[in-house]
Fold each of these.
Amino acid sequence: MHSLPAPPFAFQVEHERGRARAGTFATPHGAVRTPAFMAVGTLATVKGLDPDDLHAMGAQMILANAYHLHLRPGDALVRRLGGLHRFMAWDGPILTDSGGFQVFSLEGLRTIDEDGVSFRSHIDGSARRFTAESVMAIERGLGADVIMQFDHVPPGQSAEPVARDAMERSLRWLARCRAEFERLRAEDAPAPTPEQALFPIVQGGIHAGLRRESARAIVGMGGWHGYGVGGLSVGEAKADMYGVLDVVDGELPRDRPRYLMGVGYPEDLVEGVRRGVDLFDCVAPTRMGRNGAALTQDGRINLRNARWREDPGPLDADCTCATCRRFTRAYLRHLVTADEMLGLRLISLHNVHFLVALMARARATIADGTFDAWSAAWLERYLAGEAARGAVAKPVTPHPKR
């Protein structure tokens, strides 16, 4: 068993409402009030936004990607320039994904073996190789507060044998990640962020038995500051995703944060909080913004639609973001249809703010005891709007705790 090192990492659950909880996760670059949405800055930038935008909207922690930064501009360069915090002028907490999802999505460009993954860069075709050890060195150099293990991510609806193979390999790689992580922490000084937290990742596809097995093996290793839940929102049905969260909630310790990786649609955030999730991330809000789609309490809207041509209202009447305080739907539609980059920036800002504010509201209602009623009413309104546009199915009823 591994013992937890001393702070700066700590997690305190302050309020609970069923399985939903509100807490504080302390990191070397500040505290994160949970549940929280982490804006994705894949290439050391949240697309279209700068750190001042993020601070102004209440964003607390952001995510960057080891795979993409290794390829461009290079993790060694980022380290020489002082690490990600200095490089991108963000003084809050950062989490780096290991790049496992990106590497395994390179179908036809990668080869897997027990030691690691050989692949070709999607940028220039150059030959590269990731192992548990090399990824830990990359993430050490980038200097995020929280770093993720290198894992094997199978397709969302993989059959049980395929999911088992990936899950078991992820556990073997986790042991190697931890050994290298601890070696680097002891020997690699100075580093941009001397104290980092390594999060393991629960895998197992949509198979409840595999998810339990993965979670129990990880917990049995002891000494983790938090836990990732990976391999979801990759093509499986929402009911399957929510079912996995029910299983995992019953297996992971409640005194550590749980991070649901790559999940960021509004209904999934609320359903995740209902099932004990604390941290979320997703590229969806900025990707939608670049395509002229905006989040509202009544579902997503497409600003390219002619119905908004003369609309004098804000994107969302209750939103307090800089976009909604100043600009109309009609103006934003004009910018989008004219291919003006300001429109894409303003909608992206709104979408990220929408998810950050949604999690702030969830925290507040967990604290005051109204979360159950608030979440039910919020989902009913949002999903009714989505269903009217044919976007999503009806909400999934939470499963009993397992």
Amino acid sequence: MRVLIVDDEEKITNVLVSYFEKNGDHTWVAHTGESAIQIVDQIPLDMIILDLMLPDMAGEDICQYVKLNYDICVIMLTAKVCIDDKVKGFKMGADDYIVKPFHPKEVLVRAERLLPDSKKKQIITLGPLEFHKDERKVLINHQSIQFTPHEFSILLLLAENPKKVFSRDDLIQKIFGFDSDINPRIVDQHIKNIRKKVKEDYIQTVFRLGYKINEKVQE
């Protein structure tokens, strides 16, 4: 999930960034309305956590701008408890409303529930690595990495089943088909190529068993 956190209080943005990043999401931070709109116009976001009381413009105006131009979920954060303020926020297009003070875990849970099922299914994140299944694209730290079709399929299979160990034969059957006459060492070469491209040890070798996603990546 690509999340923009907009709040003029650095303490709040730091805490929320920590929770979302630990969850495997990618975050951007804005402390003013102007910088928030700049990010919205430049980055394909899935979610905005938006404080209503910013130094340069009202959060409601930012929400209205977002909803008129993009398909992005917006959760409003505010110290205002009046029901009229909440109604105004929802009329501007807010998808949810959280009153300060709040626990950051609540914000994370609400954000995950709002994310459309289509995006949940089509995007997988593992730390800085992000799979876009429908586009067959992989991003690392938001930079596109080119994989061959077989490399992509192997890495995606491991990412979708992070706790499972796949033997060479498992991977051949899943990627090449049951009737494929493929030398098992071809799998090793694909794994080697993937490791070179991601430049981090996302794939763990399990002695005498096969390969899986490195547990450290899942933390």
Amino acid sequence: MMTDQPALPAPPSAEPADRLLADLIALRAAVLAEAGERLARLAPGGDAGAGIHNLANYLALRGHDLRPLQRRLMSRGLSSLGRLESRVLPTLDAVIEAAAALAGAPSPTAAPDPAAFFAGETRLAAEADRLLGEAPGHRRTRIMVTLPSEAAGDPGLVIDLARRGMDVARINCAHDGSIAWRAMAAHVRTASSLTGRRLTVLMDIAGPKIRTEAVATPDKKARIAAGDAIRFVAEGEPRPTADAPFSAVVSLPDLVTRLAVGDRVRYDDGKLEGVVESLAPGEAVVRVRRAKTGGVKLKSEKGLNLPDTALGLSPLTAKDENDLATVIECADMLGYSFVSRPEDLDLLEDALARRGATESRLGLVAKIERPEAVRNLPALIARASGRRPFGVMIARGDLAAEIGFERLAEMQEEILWICEAAGVPAVWATQVLEDLVKDGVPSRGEMTDAAMAARAECVMLNKGPEVGRAIELIDRLLSRMDGHVFKKTPTLRALASW
């Protein structure tokens, strides 16, 4: 009978144990050789810590298709390669020693003692404490909460969030101003004192805003549908025409001037996608290929994503440079938007040094939200290593709009793996429990998503009227998940439902 279902992998054929041992030894040798080349690129000066060494080993290993080997190991009760992110060589050495015992042969490697085997986990936990502050005793993943504007004038609001379980307060520097930010930070310090826990502050500098400004539509109720055309204008006023009745001025003129015919443009977190159809001086016409059912309204202050276009923008704007003085004064961590290349980290370090912030007290969280940042993630981690406490935020909103919703699920997994291999704390961000935060009732899908956040060192909730309830729920959820899984590893707590 014909079937459309993919066939299960064929069971491995019986083989002598010494053949499996030989293949494992060859794999280890290949990993070491390839890792040396990767390490030379990641740390050309030769000054790399244990995390970067393990990252190079991990990247080398994952350049191989390990699926056939995994099946062979599983049939002998030896498979552990699927959980080796933080301990590549120790795991290979342990598996080789076990395979050698099965083959009745001397092992060319010795399995490390437990402390050395789990050293990567210990290193990651220490880095998370250094960056984010210590986790509460009942869960490993910290809870970060974006403070609303009213938190500046309401210390009780911040104290309430802390008592419900907030560990990190996020201040979004795209809104409000330095007076409000100082007040928010002061309220967090007060809440820390009252709760007896060290709460930390992340201040997220805005970066370049790629948004619509003034817009023109055929009428107030008009919605854009597939097949419609939008004219984006670099400067001046919107210019609607009969063939392109929707028009918007963009916040950055370079957005228009760097586009090429065929480039994709996504609007408002991917609610609409089109391709550049034609170009003229200072403007681009985009033909809509896909839009949300019922159409999409064209509004000002909505985000634009250009996944195919190299904008060449500096991630540090003049506003950001001015805001750094307040960040240095008030924050424990700085959130860095639009970082894509290692040189972007140097740019920030130079700006901090000009303001005297050369010490490593201020942590740095790189927001991964563009395809270049994903491709350059190992190089970004290597460049940041040793400078100051460092973490990565998986900014899933912009990232999904840039790489496409279809690829987001696998990419957020891969980012978690890379961070774990390097011993870098990860923040799971964007629209976590969004329905609960806004409306008081979570969806089934977002509950599953929130549970998956237990594999990160921190999860971020956005502001909203029911954020307090969301904190309490995710606090309980993360605590329960910690009993079942650590990163990719099931911990096998006893089940109580059967």
